[in-house]
């Protein structure tokens, strides 16, 4: 009987994963087909599968504009979701996330500062420099949040402090933008609002390597994470080095959120909402399932939101953070109401 229930559970998990993959491919086709130039689905599949890179309009649009943007949205959306899951595990708070705790804003502040300085001497900023700056900014804010967490017992107050730190970092970023060159202000402002536009294949490759490393490392920590979810005492009894484990969670979550901020700017609510959506779909909190499925679910969520941002008021494009807030904020409100009822 137990074995039969386990088989049914695994089968349900597999069905959900297959459904998410199908939804992912549908969104990829729809995203490629959406825009001022409409490309038939058959032509899209033919160009991609046969790797046709001629000088036709359709080929240039797919390979140079739409496909890099789609892949970047998928890669970074999944990374942000896994980062949120790691932070929720670390703080044991369902509404912890890179954006709420101010980590994304810290990364935005560091990248904004580096971009303003670097653009005075170079035409563009290398991807490695942007990620490094975002990583340092993330760790800086994460350190501040951890410092406050040791003195404040209430997690709700910790989140309030995270929001205040976020506002401070955003104010400093705006201060940097004030002294930027007029030619760079538009790009900096667009980036600071969050967007997948301007994606390039170099960005896709660089972010794919970093996010794949973060995903694999997080998956390898599945067993320690599962034990940590049951309490520090239980985790220690299983032979887990708590200090080293916490450092690993901090570094991984900061790396993933920094990668997102460096290439797409700060994106709100994905890191909070998507892990919970994944748990509701899977009806489990086992990290070995949640981490990969959360990545896939985050990719689908960001592809959907990016589609809305491009097409809702075309040709005007909305910031991706605006759309993710519209769909993610209700999930957070529901979590807070549910948490209040259970208190």
UniProtKB/TrEMBL annotation:
It is a multi-pass membrane protein. Its main location: membrane. GO terms for cellular component: plasma membrane. Signal peptide: none annotated. Pfam families: FecCD. One of its GO terms (biological process) is siderophore-iron import into cell. The keyword Transmembrane applies. Belongs to the binding-protein-dependent transport system permease family. FecCD subfamily. This is Iron ABC transporter permease. It comes from Bianquea renquensis. The lineage of its organism: Bacteria, Bacillati, Bacillota, Clostridia, Eubacteriales.
């Amino acid at each position: 009987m137990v074995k039969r229930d386990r088989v049914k559970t695994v089968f349900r998990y597999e069905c959900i994963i297959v459904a998410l993959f199908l939804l992912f491919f549908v969104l990829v086709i729809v995203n490629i087909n959406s825009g001022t130039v409409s490309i038939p689905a058959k032509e899209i599949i033919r160009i991609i599968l046969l790797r046709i890179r001629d000088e036709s309009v359709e080929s240039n649009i797919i390979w140079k504009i739409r496909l890099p943007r789609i892949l970047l949205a998928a890669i970074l959306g999944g990374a942000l979701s896994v980062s949120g899951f790691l932070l929720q595990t670390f703080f044991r708070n369902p509404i912890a996330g890179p954006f709420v705790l101010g980590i994304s804003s810290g990364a935005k502040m560091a990248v904004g500062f580096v971009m303003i300085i670097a653009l005075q001497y170079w035409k563009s900023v290398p991807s490695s420099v942007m990620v490094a700056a975002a990583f340092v900014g993330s760790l800086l804010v994460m350190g501040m949040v951890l410092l406050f967490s040791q003195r404040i017992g209430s997690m709700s107050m910790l989140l309030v402090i995270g929001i205040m730190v976020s506002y401070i970092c955003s104010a400093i970023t705006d201060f940097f933008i004030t002294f930027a060159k007029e030619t760079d202000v538009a790009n900096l402002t667009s980036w600071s609002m969050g967007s997948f536009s301007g994606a390039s294949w170099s960005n896709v490759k660089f972010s794919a390597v970093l996010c794949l490393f973060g995903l694999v490392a997080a998956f390898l920590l599945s067993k320690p994470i599962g034990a940590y979810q049951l309490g520090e005492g239980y985790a220690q009894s299983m032979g887990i080095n708590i200090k080293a484990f916490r450092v690993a969670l901090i570094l991984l979550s900061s790396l993933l959120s920094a990668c997102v901020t460096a290439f797409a700017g700060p994106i709100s609510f994905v890191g909070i909402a998507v892990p919970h959506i994944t748990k509701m779909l899977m009806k489990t909190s086992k990290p070995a399932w949640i981490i990969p499925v959360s990545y896939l679910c985050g990719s689908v969520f960001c592809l959907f939101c990016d589609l809305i941002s491009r097409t809702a008021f075309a040709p005007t494009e909305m910031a991706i953070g605006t759309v993710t807030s519209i769909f993610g904020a209700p999930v957070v409100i529901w979590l807070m109401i549910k948490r209040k009822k259970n208190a």
